[in-house]
Specification:
By secondary structure, the chain is mostly helical. It folds into three domains: 122 residues, HUPs (Rossmann fold), CATH 3.40.50.620; 111 residues, Serine Threonine Protein Phosphatase 5, Tetratricopeptide repeat (Alpha Horseshoe); 191 residues, DNA Cyclobutane Dipyrimidine Photolyase, subunit A, domain 3, CATH 1.10.579.10. It contains 20 helices and five strands. Helix 6 packs across helix 11 and helix 13 crosses helix 14. It is globular, with a radius of gyration of 23 Å. The chain starts with a strand and ends with a helix. The C terminus is likely disordered. Bound molecules: flavin-adenine dinucleotide.
Amino acid sequence: MWFRRDLRLADNPALAAAIAQSQTDKQAKVLPVYVLGPRTWAAMSPVQKHYLASSLKSLNESLGGALVIKYGDARQIVPDLAAQIGATNVHAAQLHTPNAIARDAQVAAALEAAGRELTFTGSAYAVAPGRVTKDDGTFYKVYTPFYKNWLKHGWRVPASAAVGNQDWISNIPSDQFPDLPEIDNFTLPAAGETAVLARWEYFKETAIADYADNRNRPDIDGTSMLSTALRFGEVHPRTLLADLDDSPGHEVFRKEIAWREFYADILFNRPDTTTGYYNVAYKAMDYDTGDLAAQRFNAWATGNTGYPLVDAGMRQLRTTGWMHNRVRMVVASFLIKDLHLEWTLGAEHFAQWLTDFDVASNSHGWQWTAGCGTDASPYYRVFNPTGQAIKFDPNGDYVRQFIPELRHIDGPAVHEPSLVIDGLIHGYPEPIVNHAQERIEALARLEKLPKGKVQSAVNPRENDQSKLIQSFE
Ligand SMILES: Cc1cc2nc3c(=O)[nH]c(=O)nc-3n(C[C@H](O)[C@H](O)[C@H](O)COP(=O)(O)OP(=O)(O)OC[C@H]3O[C@@H](n4cnc5c(N)ncnc54)[C@H](O)[C@@H]3O)c2cc1C
């Protein structure tokens, strides 16, 4: 059993398939394996490493210590291990990102050459990418019709837990489990299947009823914070969906799960959009480069732009590995439209720091903000970072939580510290740009794009823009 984005035992059809096969053949046992690419590991931030290492530790405990970790290239390690134990099949859940598809094809070919099989059961989605199509077989490019047909397609009930008293292969030595790096100041959400299911229960008890109203408020613990668990597969979305009814909070939550599935479907059908423009007309946008651009990027990345909501978000990212969705949109808009930097720079930074980093949701979340994605927020809609702060962090509590230099300012005045006497006394910077001016500059750059092509990726007949924006925000 090759674990990848499914670090759990419950509702794990691939694991169930491996166990079922071993039970058919009484002589067979299962070897649970996780392969860690050294380059992937080296590129991860401390918070990302901490989360993954904790999750692997938890999975190992659930497996009674049977998990074998190997460092290296899966294309070599998986076929080698299969040969070592004489496996007929390597079981895994199917992955759908371009890199994983290419890698898995090579693993499958190497296994096949030795008379073995890579057997996929299930995926990381309720409905696997590629399954929800229009009547003519093409993929949906707009969320709402995708959502309707995704619902119509439906999904299986969660697979029952399969492990029981499973006998695992125990004579293959594991490499050392990764150490948990030190994390300063903040307690990260607990990793592992048990902690994640407890978080889900807590969210259902305390927040899901008000989710439709509170999900935009970074100062409230109003969202599930399960994106990292979904990224590593500590819980399957089907398990969450199975608990939902038709009440308003549940409805909206189901729609958010569907955004994740929609973006996975888009990336599956447009693998070039990992880093490439979904609407290529925006490739011609004039972005800043050079020393000043680099300095501004650095101010953004470290949370020192002088715009408190932006800085709180960027510091939340660095210290906790997660950022609230509303704030992700604000910081992304700020990078692209106030600093005039290309969205790919921001997407790369998020990839390095988010524990929930998911290539489909990340690239398309960024492209939505940059105006070049599916259902994109029109480019001319520029978020006002101070207005957003006053609206969604009305008392300033979120900003004070992440920016110690502003904790001496009470109430919403914290959103404009340079207007407060002694507001900057603890070293918080003046705004690095003037939002009103940069907004005009952003719109001027939009005007320079070749006319007629800018909105061409979206068919207006299919696209109920205002509703989509509301549902997304
Ligand atoms: C610029 C940008 C980058 C993003 N990068 C990522 C990323 O790398 N990984 C990631 O999982 N999400 C990403 N998102 C989407 C969203 O911000 C997070 O999924 C959400 O904040 C996670 O918090 P939560 O689990 O509490 O969400 P909840 O509000 O509890 O939502 C439940 C689940 O629905 C899914 N979901 C919710 N909103 C979205 C959305 N807009 N797009 C896709 N799925 C969604 C997530 O799986 C989430 O866990 C990004 C959004 C933006 C604007």
